[in-house]
Request: fold
Amino acid sequence: MTGSIALLTALGLSAGLAGAAGTGLRALVFRRAAPARFDAPAPQPGLAARLPFRGLRHTEFAASQDQGNYGELLTLIVMAARGWRAINGKVGGPQGVDGVFVRDTPAGLEAVLIETKTGSSGYAERAMSDAKLLGDLDTLYLTAADEAHQAVYVAIADGLKTASPRITKELWRHALDTGETRTVALGRDGERLTKGRLMDLRLMNGALTAGLRDFDRAGRYLPRT
Reply:
């Protein structure tokens, strides 16, 4: 019995030593294979905030229509970031509604119809009047690719007719030189109901400009500077 205990003890000790040796060997191998450590510089508070915002000038666009398209794209990105889904609002080319955005709520479908103006371009109230928009929605219904979109256009039209609070209209004016955007609520005839509110969209503008310059490498829309 004593001999058996001694044997087991010896075997256990041998296994322990082998395990320790194996652990040491693995540590040595991994230590040699590990990449050299790179210590990143310590973050400097306020460094990113000190980067100057470089706004766009209207003369940087190849065409005035490109500036308008840029503004509509900026509106789309901001609304998508807020959880709204964009659907087609154009009827026959560039005509129609600049932006139609929808989302589902417990109370039902909500929609925002947005007219986007970029820079100093003029705004005509009739372009966002209920009468004009109802005509656009009729055309969109007739040319919709599927029944799901048709149902949404019908719901928006019904909401306009009944002045539903879930169907709203807004005017967005982007000042690309400052990166600010003013949004104004619109009435049934397209009239401004409030002075609106100002949004700081410098981050969105910077990201969109950088992305567009990378995508538009031939300088078709934003010539290289």
Q: What stands out?
A: The helical segments are 2-33, 64-81, 130-143, 147-161, 202-215.
